[in-house]
Design brief:
The chain is α/β, with parallel strands linked by helices and 495 residues long. It has helices at residues 3-7, 22-25, 62-72, 89-98, 111-125, 134-145, 150-157, 187-196, 227-263, 269-278, 301-313, 340-347, 369-386, 402-406, 411-422, 424-427, 430-445, 450-457, 461-475, 482-493, and strands at residues 15-18, 31-34, 48-52, 76-80, 102-105, 167-169, 175-178, 200-203, 216-219, 287-293, 321-324, 330-335, 356-359, 392-395.
């Protein structure tokens, strides 16, 4: 199959944006990779068509992405139009510079349709020796009809291949399933294996799956099974994951109802216990509540990240609930253990997406969940304000100073408080106001010591007295009173 075959397939409706070189159009396609990594090179094999929803894209980032595709030998880029309402011109220009054919994928076309087209074409060219045996294929079909899980599907697919180690992994290193011959691999090590390109990795294409949760069929031995067989197994696993996604939609609805109860005031204990039971959660705790946000990104991205974190800390369902609060914030109720390592692994899957999270004290029982959620939301606000462009998980317990505590106050509230307390010092003549604000900050940092302030500012003590009198005049505060000093210090920290 060649690139041109896909571009001219009317059933796919691809919109060619640049593909003028006949040699590039005639290039044979070796497979398909679905990725939203900002630097996808380690997952792309020579000759593969790359499908991307462009979640990673922001102005100035196209060059790095396309350069990585070129270096990896990608045959073409098919970019989804749903996220940005089209394919950014910057991305098209980068493809032209690097000689990578590019086409837009309309919002109504699922990536699964493209991967199926490629793999079905390839299967037709495979000999029977290279593909799955008929009995194995029949067994897989029965399992998929029964909505079997990935462990059963993987075991059936490799039953005829003795002692082959095969895994279904996520990009963060979570083991979804493994054959009997595959030794256990810690998550951090598994993530490194997939990222480094060791062994053989085949992407599993499934619709409505976040980049954090996508499955990868991984074999430590690149020659452990024929390529045709692996693509067929990957397609079966894709159907398996889509079934799991559909099943999870009902669970998400129950979690959303739990979130509405926790976010409301005065949840009745009996109603709360019923909601926990509906989610399959234990009624006696302890619990950890986490909230997450990825900014103005693709819908469902934060829920996907939390679901993957839950998969690490609560691998045996149902031990966790993931849903959305009434305001749209993603949240999860998990077992009480620490999630720091899992968060780091999950956030590392999408380095171009700032994954912000907040958590609070462990809730000993259902009655403490509402308070734990309030702490987590406060910590999330702190995470967003202190590291807007970096993935970070903030624990409310770490907000142990006034400065740290104020980071959890919404930016609009901080700004209003600053204007109210400092008043004319912010609206007066700029140079004079700046001098007074700087002097006030130094005075308070020196614990109100006139001598130390004068020394720090290289001024006479009388000048310091004069400046502080002007501050008192404009703000209406008395710097001899501790409460007024705290008010002014808090206002200065609200920058």
């Amino acid at each position: 199959m060649h690139v041109e075959h896909l571009l001219t397939d009317r059933s796919l409706g691809l919109r060619p944006l640049w593909a003028q070189d006949a040699a590039l159009l005639a290039r044979e396609i070796s497979g398909v990779t679905v990725t939203d990594l900002e630097d996808p090179a380690r997952f792309v094999r020579p000759g593969e068509v790359v499908l991307s929803g462009l979640v990673w894209w922001a102005p100035g980032k196209a060059e790095r992405f396309v350069s990585a595709l070129k270096d990896a030998g990608a045959a073409a880029l098919f970019a989804g139009e749903e996220t940005h309402g089209g394919v950014p011109e910057e991305l098209v220009e980068a493809c032209v510079r690097h000689g990578v054919p590019v086409a837009g994928v309309p919002a109504h076309i699922m990536f699964r349709a493209i991967t199926d087209t490629v793999y079905l074409w390839q299967w037709g060219e495979l000999s029977r020796r290279q593909a799955l045996p008929e009995n194995a294929r029949a067994r897989l079909s029965r399992l998929l009809a029964q909505e079997a899980g990935p462990a059963d599907v993987l075991a059936a697919a490799f039953a005829h291949v003795d002692r082959t180690a095969a895994y279904v992994l996520t990009p963060s290193g979570r083991t979804v399933a493994a054959t009997a011959a595959a030794p256990g691999v810690p998550a951090r090590e598994a993530a490194a294996l997939v990222a480094d390109g060791r062994g053989l990795t085949v992407s599993v294409a499934a619709d409505s799956v976040s980049p954090y949760e996508r499955w990868l069929l991984y074999l430590p031995d690149p020659d452990g099974a024929p390529a045709g067989m692996l693509h067929e197994v990957a397609a079966a696993l894709g159907r398996c994951q889509e079934t799991a996604v559909r099943r999870r939609s009902a669970e998400r609805q129950a979690a959303d109802e739990l979130g509405a109860l926790l976010a409301g005031a005065g949840a009745v204990e009996g109603t709360l216990q019923a909601a926990l039971q509906e989610c399959g959660l234990p009624l006696d705790g302890p619990y950890r509540v986490v909230v997450a946000d990825t900014g103005a990104r693709r819908p469902g991205l934060a829920e996907g990240a939390l679901a993957e974190v839950a998969g690490h800390v609560a691998p045996r369902a149902p031990q966790a609930a993931v849903g959305r609060l009434p305001d749209g914030t993603a949240f999860a109720v998990l077992p009480s253990q620490s999630i720091g390592e899992a968060w780091e692994l999950v956030a590392g899957c999408e380095p171009g997406v700032p994954l912000h999270g907040g958590t609070g004290s462990v809730a000993a029982g259902p009655g403490e969940l509402t308070g734990a959620l309030a702490q987590a939301r406060y910590a999330l606000t702190s995470a967003r304000s202190t590291a807007p462009d970096t993935s970070v998980l903030t624990d409310a317990a770490t907000l142990s100073s006034l400065e740290a505590l104020l980071t959890g106050v919404p930016a609009e509230v901080r700004a209003a408080y600053r204007r109210t307390v400092l008043g004319p010092l912010l609206t007066g003549e700029r140079a004079a106001s700046a001098v007074l604000l700087s002097s006030l900050r130094t005075f308070l940092a020196c614990d109100g010591s006139w001598a130390r302030t004068a020394e720090a500012l290289h001024l006479h003590v009388n000048t310091v007295h004069y400046r502080m009198q002007r501050v008192e005049h404009f703000t209406g505060r008395d710097l001899s009173r501790l409460s007024d000093r705290l008010d002014l210090w808090a206002a200065l920290l609200c920058e």
